[in-house]
Design goal:
By secondary structure, this protein is of the alpha/beta class. It has a single domain, classed as Thiamin diphosphate (ThDP)-binding fold, Pyr/PP domains (Rossmann fold, 3-Layer(aba) Sandwich). It is 36% helix and 15% strand. The chain has an 8-stranded mixed beta sheet with strand order 2-1-3-4-6-5-7-8, with helices on both faces. It is globular.
């Protein structure tokens, strides 16, 4: 079904206002729009790993979630939701449940790339009919902006501080989207919180209504950890896409499709400059770091073009 902003806006809210997420955070935008892709008549069971999203939206006795919600530990969002999905299938076979229920797990990059990778991999390999969504803000933001394996190289964090001896994190970020593609699951998508709501909504709808395990990796900037001005959330996301730092693509039954190709691909410096976590990259003598990041972005973009048959 073609995306219509007007029709999507008419759907009931499943994630309410009044939560305590920071102004300018990408995560609630991700959640709100993904849940809008559900059919109004369908019920959802949602699991959320410990992190910013959980602690700010489910403060007993209050909740921002209108569907069934399960808070679980940092490492087991996928395991918890896969267990609920298995119980649902068993009860439906026995005629104890009617209607359709969708199963969705949310986790930040700390609870997905790192601590929760084992349970995520297991749930995907077992073939549970569920969607796992990683809202990727590139660090352990909830506990003080510590580096994760999703943190870009040369990022200044509290556990990879940029100083005279070591200029930030020394490793390239893990490519979790490609790791999930190699689980041979039916659908994997990479998208962003804002800037292209049509892309986010259509991928969510496809992921939710594809049989079997599906995965979405969604860039969700954090004003506190990335150190950008609060109103610049949309601009930061657009720059990530326009520089090809964060390409928008999907892999359906093993077939790659690039959803957006910048008409004039911007240099990655345009994405890095507005963020305080990268300010040291623009000091005299550090030009090599920006050049190194640009080379890696170009290499991965060229690889993606080849995988999609675009070259």
């Amino acid at each position: 079904m073609a995306y219509s902003l007007k029709e999507a806006a008419k759907k009931p809210e499943r994630f309410t206002g009044g939560h305590r997420m920071c102004a300018g955070c990408g995560a609630p935008v991700v959640v709100r729009h993904i849940l809008r892709a559900l059919k109004p008549e369908d019920h959802a069971v949602i699991g959320c790993a410990t992190g910013c999203l959980e602690v700010s939206t489910f403060i007993y006795p209050y909740t921002a979630w209108k569907d069934s919600f399960i808070h679980n530990a940092f490492e087991n969002s996928a395991a918890t939701v896969s267990g609920a999905e298995a119980a649902y299938r068993a009860m439906k076979r026995k005629g104890k449940i009617r209607g359709e229920t969708k199963f969705i797990a949310f986790g930040g990059d700390g609870g997905t790339y790192d601590i929760g990778l084992q349970s995520l991999s297991g749930a995907m390999e077992r073939g549970h009919n569920m969607l796992y969504v990683c809202y990727d803000n590139g660090a352990y933001m909830n506990t003080g902006v510590q580096r994760s394996s999703a943190t870009p190289k040369y990022t200044d964090t509290t556990t990879s501080p940029a100083g005279k001896k070591i200029p930030g994190k020394q490793q390239w970020r893990k490519d979790l989207t490609e790791i999930m593609v190699n689980h041979s699951i039916p659908y994997v998508a990479q998208t962003a919180a804002v800037g292209n709501m049509k892309d986010l909504y259509e991928k969510a709808e496809k992921a939710l209504y594809t049989d079997g395990p599906t995965f979405m990796n969604v860039l969700a900037p954090c004003p506190r950890g990335w150190r950008y001005n609060t109103p610049d959330l949309m601009d930061i996301n657009k720059l990530a896409v326009e520089t090809c730092f964060w390409p928008l693509y999907e892999v359906e039954e093993g077939r790659y499709r690039i959803n957006y190709k910048p008409r004039n691909k911007l240099p990655v410096a345009e994405f890095l400059k507005p963020q305080g976590r990268f300010k040291h990259l623009f000091k005299p003598g550090n030009e090599y770091m920006v050049e190194e990041i640009q080379q890696e972005v170009d290499r991965k973009w060229d690889r993606l073009l080849r995988l999609a048959g675009e070259v």
